């Protein structure tokens, strides 16, 4: 691994979240249950470790166990600025918006670039944008 990778601890939604993100970003999803890791501190089918691989976004996630606190996102957003062509970024924005909330429409800004913000159905906030040259 050569870059920082977010690791989300979710309230029993790791399987759904990683599957969703895998579909959005065209990544493979690897899931390992508590049973796979011989863990007995939660449901055997809970996710002990999962990750997105082979796609443009790297992400780890697991279900919380015991008294672990689940992820709460305040003052954090994941920026996907210029990480793909405009068509792909528009598609990601639309997909992340499904059952989520558009916080700021994807739009052209006074300085010429395009960007917008969305909170997805799992509570993660995304900033998506691209330069005018990529807008076509």
UniProtKB/TrEMBL annotation:
* Protein name per its UniProtKB record: VOC family protein
The domain of life for this entry's organism is: Bacteria
* Source species of the chain: Serinibacter arcticus
Q: Which InterPro entries match?
A: Glyas_Bleomycin-R_OHBP_Dase (IPR029068), Glyas_Fos-R_dOase_dom (IPR004360), PhnB-like (IPR028973)
> What SUPFAM superfamilies does this protein's entry cite?
Glyoxalase/Bleomycin resistance protein/Dihydroxybiphenyl dioxygenase
Every copy of the Glyoxalase/fosfomycin resistance/dioxygenase domain together lies at 15-126
Q: CDD domains recorded for this chain?
A: PhnB_like
């Amino acid at each position: 691994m050569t870059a920082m990778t977010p690791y989300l601890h979710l309230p029993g939604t790791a399987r759904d979240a990683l599957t969703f993100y895998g579909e959005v970003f065209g990544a493979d999803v690897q899931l390992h249950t508590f049973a796979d890791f011989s863990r007995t501190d939660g449901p055997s089918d809970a996710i002990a470790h999962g990750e997105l691989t082979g796609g443009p976004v790297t992400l780890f996630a697991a279900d919380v166990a015991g008294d672990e606190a689940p992820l709460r996102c305040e003052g954090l957003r994941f920026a996907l600025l210029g990480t793909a062509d405009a068509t792909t970024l528009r598609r990601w924005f639309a997909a992340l918006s499904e059952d989520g909330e558009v916080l700021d429409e994807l739009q052209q800004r006074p300085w010429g670039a395009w960007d917008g913000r969305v909170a997805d159905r799992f509570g993660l906030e995304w900033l998506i944008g691209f330069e005018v040259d990529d807008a076509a």
